[in-house]
Fold:
Amino acid sequence: MLMAAVLVVVGVFAFPDMRAPSRALTVPATSRRRGLATWIGRRSYIRARAHRRLVDDLPDVLEMIARSLRGGANLRGALADATEHDSPAAQSLRPVMSRINAGDRLGDALDAWASRLDDPNADLARAVLRLGDATGAGVASSLEQAATSLRDRAALTAEIQALSSQARLSSIVIGFAPLAFLAVSATVDPASAAVLVTTRFGLVCLAFGLGLDVIGVRWMRRIGAGVAQ
Structure:
């Protein structure tokens, strides 16, 4: 019973994201607020996934535009060809073509597109396309290099996330290892566990050890989160 209580306490303070949401009493206002928060969270998650798919699709669209340019099309014609595809990034460029057809300049339409996406990858694509529009020079090779750079960046991000996941798992293992050792020791020698909870010195040692354990786990998780960013 003691060990179960200790595990719960350490888990709550060391891993705040593992806390279960408290079940409120049947209060309609509280239920509505929780339902609204859940709905907002799901909407944010869906938007984040859609944004991620769009950004991941940008290299393919840039290569489509480059192929059209190498085939003899001008930049606006290559953009129009790319928007005929059903991929997320291609669909996001359709408002750009609509603004161009309405008389806006290509650079302004691309600025609005990149501002709406608010992503460094979109800023890179916008910069290369604007360069081609401003100079009139062929940008097919620049677009292909940008696509390669975006894929390399995505691969690096995925690797960092994988490494940070391992760090988070390590923090869990390291955080619970002393508790597991304490549980085994209490099972083998109950008298030693009794000292921890029945004497002032034992309680001080127990509190000090648990505090260090919580600090160490949270420190490791903060380092892992910093690397992931």
